[in-house]
Amino acid sequence: MPHRARLTVDLAALDRNFRTLSAVAAGAEVAPVVKADGYGLGAARVSRRLWESGARSFFVARLDEGEALRKDLGETRPARIFVLDGLVPGTAERVRRSDLIPILADPGQVEAARQAGPQLAVGLHVDTGMNRQGLSPDDLVGIARGGSAGLKPVLLMSHLGSATLPGDPRNALQLARFREARSWLPDLPASLAASAGTFLGPEWRFDMVRPGVSLFGGGPFERPDPRIEAVATLDAPVLYVRTVEAGEWLGYGSGLRMARSTRIAVVAAGYADGLLRRGGGRAEAWFAGARRPVRIINMDLLAIEIGETPAKPGDRVELMGPNLLVDDLAAATDTVAHECLVRLSTRARRSYVRS
Ligand SMILES: *Cc1c(COP(=O)(O)O)cnc(C)c1O
After folding, report:
1. Is there an atom of ligand 1 within 6 Å of 125 CB?
2. Which of the four, 16, 75, 165, 233, has the lowest number of CB atoms within 10 Å?
3. In ligand 1, which atom is closest to the CA atom of 163?
4. Where are the domain boundaries for CATH 2.40.37.10 in the chain?
């Protein structure tokens, strides 16, 4: 048993989440988003497993992520790899060599793609209201009216800014704008939804959905969802069991003074293992069949309150996993499941199981 935090990735649970999303998508292609090293879980391993599940299109953010993914999938697993950053000027040869599909996201990129030659397959990102990246409706009309010379578009996509809030009026506005954009390029396969959008309803799903976080265990609406299974488990061993007497302090600073004698287990995990420091006093951990308050999170150590429960060095404490969902951890640390997941790719040792 290693004396350090351990991140276990359950590839069978990943497969079940892919199947769940495929069932919800009801015929739309499910194209996993495996950017940022597969949300911290290891892009190579999760992508190969998802390919076995049936995925044939993948999305990454950066060009080098796409190059690495092409190598990881290898010649035996042909797949389309879309690059969300688009075509950074000067990189067309690299895109071609790894057979990647850049999603053009501003007029300069359209120009760069034209100059890169006629056979470069591209996606078109139209901005429908996130105002972060994407072509304007006017740019798109220009391409539709014969301006696509030198381009070989294979996908029209956009991205929702408020899909985790189903009642937000921006969703309907973005949907209407996307439908209009689509009417100009009606032959192109279309994609609007990420994890949350996939669950909003049939009109959001078009030809392809692009889930990331819900494949990896995050509920689509930023809270635990019974349809989605935990994929990553972070656990770490107890190093010391101690009692902090009434009137004594715990850890740094003067803030945490014990009102009564308190038994704690000190665990070999901290913010250097990807937990957020601000989870101290708010997050919970799973130990001996129950949730326990996490009192402090330091760089290498954290302390949980264990009452009278027997504990000894080497006992494992679950910090995130099936008993303590990534959405619970996100809520306790004021963030989203995405951030909790990507942070875990630091010191914790990763291993893979097919439960
Ligand atoms: C990250 C990303 C996704 C996946 O989002 P999730 O919320 O993780 O499902 C889909 N599309 C785009 C454009 C993205 O940037």
Report:
1. no
2. 75
3. 7
4. 232-353
